[in-house]
Amino acid sequence: MISLKKEGLLAEGKAKAVYATTSPEIVWLEHKDEATALNGKRKVRIEDKGHYTNQISGYLFRYLKERGIPSHYVKTVSARASLVKKLTMIPVEVVIRNVTAGHFTTRFAQAPMQPLTPPVQEFYLKADELDDPMINDSQLVALSILTQGQIEAIRQQALRINQLLTDLFADLDIQLLDLKVEFGFTKQNDLVLADELSPDNMRLQDKRNHQSLDKDIFRQKKGDLRLGYAIVLDRLAAKLG
């Protein structure tokens, strides 16, 4: 690919910023050194966090691509930035839960770390002003956000991604408790995986000592988030090269 240059800011969120490039089909996705909780109400700058989330995402997107999962990822271009395809994003977060954790335990009065078989899938509307409410299939269709066929395609793809990542992390002595994924449509209207794949949007537990390796370190004030993220990155690098 011809070298692309970073141009003007297109959009900025809590953890990432999107910039135009010299190609109309490709954007520059930059990971920020900020951690947020409580839907952005708590926000702290953590040096090098963007490096970890970007590098981990690169490893995981490449791993999934090799196994037939299409995504927006093109390549990693710096410590904190990657080139990705420009998409029409679907305003929905898809959560896949392998065990009881987080909000699921309080919502359904369940003890943590209970296996969920099959994995539970939940959809949430991306709307900060509404605190990202849960949304069901019929609501998605009635609000013209997705068709039933698109919902089924997303469900199947999300479960496939979950299984592939569960198997990969198991090889690293890490348990994938749950994860959040997002999707978008290409110019050709193809459904592809988007956003990021990092400990920012999944729960990971070290099987060696049962310690959190994800953003729960920050949410629950358990210590230095970077130490957990570094373990994930180091094990991925050792496994995938």
Would you summarize the structure shown here?
The chain has 241 residues and is an alpha+beta fold.
List the helices and strands and how they pair.
Blueprint: E1 6-12, E2 16-21, E3 26-31, E4 34-37, E5 42-45, H1 49-65, E6 73-76, E7 81-85, E8 88-89, E9 92-99, H2 103-107, E10 115-125, H3 137-142, H4 148-171, E11 174-185, E12 191-194, E13 202-206, H5 216-219, H6 225-240
Antiparallel strand pairs: 1-2, 2-3, 3-7, 4-5, 6-7, 8-11, 9-10, 9-11, 11-12, 11-13
Helix pairs in contact: 1-6
Describe the fold and architecture.
- It is a single chain.
- The chain has 241 residues and is α+β, with helices and mostly antiparallel strands.
- It folds into two domains: 80 residues, Phosphorylase Kinase, domain 1 (2-Layer Sandwich), CATH 3.30.200.20; 134 residues, D-amino Acid Aminotransferase, Chain A, domain 1 (2-Layer Sandwich), CATH 3.30.470.20.
- Helix content is 30%, strand content 32%.
- It has six helices and 13 strands.
- The strands form three sheets. Strands 8, 9, 10, 11, 12 and 13 form a six-stranded antiparallel sheet that branches.
- Helix 1 runs parallel beside helix 6.
- The chain is globular, with a radius of gyration of 17 Å.
- InterPro entries: SAICAR_synt/ADE2_N, SAICAR_synt_PurC, SAICAR_synthetase.
- Its EC number is 6.3.2.6.
- It catalyses: 5-amino-1-(5-phospho-D-ribosyl)imidazole-4-carboxylate + L-aspartate + ATP = (2S)-2-[5-amino-1-(5-phospho-beta-D-ribosyl)imidazole-4-carboxamido]succinate + ADP + phosphate + 2 H(+).
- GO terms for molecular function: ATP binding; phosphoribosylaminoimidazolesuccinocarboxamide synthase activity.
- This is Phosphoribosylaminoimidazole-succinocarboxamide synthase.
